[in-house]
Amino acid sequence: MFMPKVKALLEAHGRPPREVYLDHENSGWVPPEVVEAMLPYFNERGYGHPSITNKPGWEALEVVESTAELVADTLGGEPSQINFVHSGTEANNLAILGSAKALKRKGKVIISDIEHYSVLLPALSLEEAGFTVVRAPVNEEGFVDVDVLRELVDRETVLVSIQAVNHEIGTVQKLKEIVEVVKDRNPDVIFHTDACDAYGRVPLRVDDLGVDMVTLSSHKVLGPKGVGVLWLSEGIRVEPLLKGALSSQSLWPGVENVPALAGFKRAVELAFDNDLSKVRSLRDRLIEAVLSEVPDTLLNGPSGELRAPDNVNISFLHVEGEALTVELSLRGVYVSSGSACTSRVLEPSHVMLAIGRSYEAAHGSLLFKLTRYHSEQDVDYVVEQVIEAVRRLREISPLGKG
Amino acid sequence: MSTRVPLPYTPMVLELFRNPKNLGKMEDPDAFAQAGSPACGDVISIYLRISEDEVIEEASFESYGCAANIAAASILTEMVKGKALKEAWNIGWEDIADRLGGLPPVKRHCSILAVGGLRRAIRHYYEGRERPDWLPEELTTVERQALEEEEMIERLYGGKAAGR
Known about the structure:
The structure holds two protein chains of two kinds. Chain A is α/β, with parallel strands linked by helices. Chain A contains 15 helices and 13 strands.
């Protein structure tokens, strides 16, 4: 049996002289000031249980409360509407499965064709429970076809889940218009949006949008892993998926991860204190340099204001993306790919296929996510390394040589 | 439904990815074959130079594929050099995986594809020549697997593989 030794792999890999981490889609690098905000809550204060009557417990409760207030303030909701769970994935599962469970009747569930797996898979699993699940198509830039969506929403429709910003190709959906179309057809529909990639990047006010459930994730705003949020509008019923002693959170049992909440709170403060013009200009610098200097490349997703300010996704034809991630890793550039070769079965990213990309373009796609901590020098280094890495792998490849 | 999977490569895979041996197209090879499909994310080309007494003198490859695919092709071309065609034919995909220090289960098809490509090249060599006793008339399991993968991809995705 194959027993991998990752330690040996890391030794063989070595540490490149310069490192730029751009895989914030999959897991985040956490800024030192965020880590610093977490540290006291391990053993100085707030290490107690938020629902127990002692001082460390109340200190912990204060973190839960003030984080909920901050998040509610940034979203335009009430602190009582903020539910903390352990990840964006959990929040999406709770939204889809928990609301379906609370409904007490079956109906139609509509999601977009490019949802994150943590929406897609729970939604598809509802089919086994007797729901009808329909996937609304998107155009070549990832925008939901509003006319088709209007036709799909009917009296049987109970739940619609459409993300605010796509996690792979950065499409900023016209969410307000989408919610209006859905509610106009059927005001009883519960509207959920996975806003993990929108929060702190594009305007997101629940009072303005008219949504009923919103998912957020700490690590997507450079907070620590281990915190997700499900915001619920008044009167929306959701049943918890996990059973246990409920604490300060009515939808999630177990001890709150207070140090992670303290870090999430700091990360949110920092995200909303910084303007996005820097990261947007880094994004455009990276896109323009790669598209102009590497032949046979395609930008996946829209450009300009309709694209998330941190997202760059480019397909490199005639090269396979997994090999490209390994080649770039050896050069200190850390990214991910939509290639089938990084997946459990031979199937590339469903987002790439939904926007009509060929299998070859999907396999050769790379996702870069920038932050305000990156510099122009980082971007220029990444561009240099991408040029070299693609050149080397195209030399190896039998494809695309005419 | 596809989800991500950990791919802890061995140092050998990483080394062969970094510095592949026998890389590149061969001019006027005595045998050549391609296996895989751009749609599944793996294509491997195998080139062989074969002496009159049917010994592989030179072997090279090109690969459109993941790190495991490049490493598998590299080690296979290294393994066949100096071997009689009959011996080369008997190299199994497990031999490649062993030489690489192991492959994650989801990457085994990379070594199957490499062996499939080699056997296809050897068959091409005997087209128009008398088939030796050791060369089975029927396709072997590995060859069928390589073929099935190509056919499955073609069936599933058809022309979509070629467009943008």
